[in-house]
């Protein structure tokens, strides 16, 4: 599943590729990809004649600000355009975008296609089809309609996410620290890969009961999370899962993991073998010697 670094890589790609992309035609190839409005015609009508103005990211959600452009042949000033709500995307397991100049025949996993007047296409492809899209009219509340978005915890890079915050939210939690890191209501955007890598880097066992973790360890954990995520964003996301960037390429092999998918291999610090075990249904990789 794409995690924060992969989604951030997609966001940057979308900002780079889509220059003044005004949606002139929409084709919904699979109705269930549209999560809101329930009626797909309403979704299509809603986003038509919208300029995709800006892409933001919150946790693993991509959020495009839309501006209304009724007549694109007349000169318009971006700042004067009226808002037309938001196009929100969650890639879930296997969703990805492809930007295609001079649109071609879509593959069978194509779910939604957006076209501009020059027939450039922003194509959304999703093999397992868990990904979702919402069009939220400007008078509605994003956080109310998209429950998962409304309940998200702070961004790992934000000032709100620090050792004090962590201490407060986990002080009575008996769950494992690994399960805590995967909980999107506690911190946004971290999934299996980066939870394992951050805990390794902080020297904390993923099995530790969250409430037993001390302040100085939490300081280290916060730093590890930020470092691991930043490093991965810098390398364009990992090669794991079915993550693709906008050119349809797999992650650029830049990120070397320390524990994730290294079961039975030697720990890079101590030489002990990396182990794997499930925690709340998720494969967890760790070094029993380096992580206490
Ligand atoms: Zn080790």
General description of the model:
- The protein is an alpha+beta fold and 292 residues long.
- The chain folds into 2 domains: 4-150, MutM-like, N-terminal (N-terminal domain of MutM-like DNA repair proteins, Alpha-Beta Barrel); 163-286, Helicase, Ruva Protein, domain 3.
- It is 26% helix and 22% strand.
- It is built from 8 helices and 11 strands.
- The strands form 3 sheets. Strands 2-9-5-4-3 form a 5-stranded mixed sheet, covered by helices on one side.
- Helix 1 runs parallel beside helix 8, helix 5 packs across helix 8 (215-234) and helix 7 (192-202) crosses helix 8 (215-234).
- The radius of gyration is 21 Å and the shape is elongated.
- The two termini are 27 Å apart.
- The mean pLDDT is 92.
- The site of zinc ion has 7 residues, from loops.
Number of helices: 8
Shape: elongated
- Strand and helix order: HEEHEEEEEEEHHHHHHEE
* Total beta strand runs: 11
Instruction: Determine the N-to-C terminus distance.
Output: 27 Å
- CATH topology of the largest domain: the name is N-terminal domain of MutM-like DNA repair proteins
């Amino acid at each position: 599943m794409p995690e924060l670094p992969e989604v951030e890589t997609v966001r940057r790609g979308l900002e780079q590729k889509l220059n003044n992309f005004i949606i002139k035609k929409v084709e919904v190839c699979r109705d269930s990809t549209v999560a809101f409005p329930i009626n797909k015609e309403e979704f299509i009508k809603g986003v038509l004649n919208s300029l995709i103005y800006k892409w933001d990211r919150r946790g693993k959600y991509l959020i495009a600000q839309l501006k209304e452009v009724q007549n694109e042949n007349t000169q318009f000033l971006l700042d004067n355009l009226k808002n037309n709500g938001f196009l929100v995307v969650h890639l879930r397991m296997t969703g990805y975008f492809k930007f295609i100049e001079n649109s071609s025949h879509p593959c069978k996993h194509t779910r939604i296609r957006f076209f501009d007047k020059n027939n450039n296409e922003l194509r959304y492809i999703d093999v397992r089809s868990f990904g979702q899209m919402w069009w939220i009219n400007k008078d509605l509340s994003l956080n109310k309609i998209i429950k998962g978005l409304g309940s998200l915890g702070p961004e790992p890079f934000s000032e709100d996410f620090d050792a004090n915050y962590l201490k407060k939210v986990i002080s009575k939690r008996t769950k494992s620290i690994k399960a805590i890191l995967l909980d999107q209501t506690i911190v946004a955007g971290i999934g299996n890969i980066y939870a394992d890598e951050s805990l390794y880097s902080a020297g904390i066992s993923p099995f530790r009961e969250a409430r037993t973790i001390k302040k100085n360890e939490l300081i280290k954990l916060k730093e590890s999370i930020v470092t691991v995520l930043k490093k991965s964003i810098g390398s364009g996301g990992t090669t794991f899962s079915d993550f693709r960037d906008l050119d349809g390429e797999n992650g650029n092999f830049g990120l070397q993991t320390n524990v994730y998918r290294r079961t039975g291999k030697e720990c890079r610090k101590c030489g002990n073998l990396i182990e794997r075990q499930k925690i709340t249904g998720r494969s967890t990789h760790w070094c029993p010697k380096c992580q206490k």
